[in-house]
Amino acid sequence: MLVGGGIALLLILFFVTGVDNPNPEWGKYWMIRPLIITPLAGATGGAFYAFMDYQSSRGFNRTLAILLSIVVYFIGLWLGTVLGLAGTMWN
User: Fold this and answer.
1) What is the pLDDT of residues 4-38, one digit of tens each?
2) CB 1 within 8 A of CB 46
3) Other beta carbons less than 10 A from residue 68's beta carbon
4) Which CA distances in Å does 72 have to 16, 22, 33, 52, 60?
5) 3-state DSSP call for residue 13?
6) How many other CB atoms are there within 10 angstroms of residue 13's CB atom?
């Protein structure tokens, strides 16, 4: 979960710190929402990977578990980024 959340945090920091002149309509603390939601989505994807790793040790196809985990992680990361940036940078 920590690795998934860390990757998501690095991704959202890349977008958030790149804003030089934020729109005044976004408010003073507009960065808080994306910096919370996106790492939570990444940590959830990391938890799903850990769950699938556990299932693969119990007999589930390991290759399928890894591929499914990667797909779920990237979809969750994308949705977390959209939800975090909705109303600010994502219009």
Assistant:
1) 999 999 999 999 998 888 888 888 899 999 999 99
2) yes
3) 17
4) 24, 32, 22, 11, 17
5) helix
6) 15
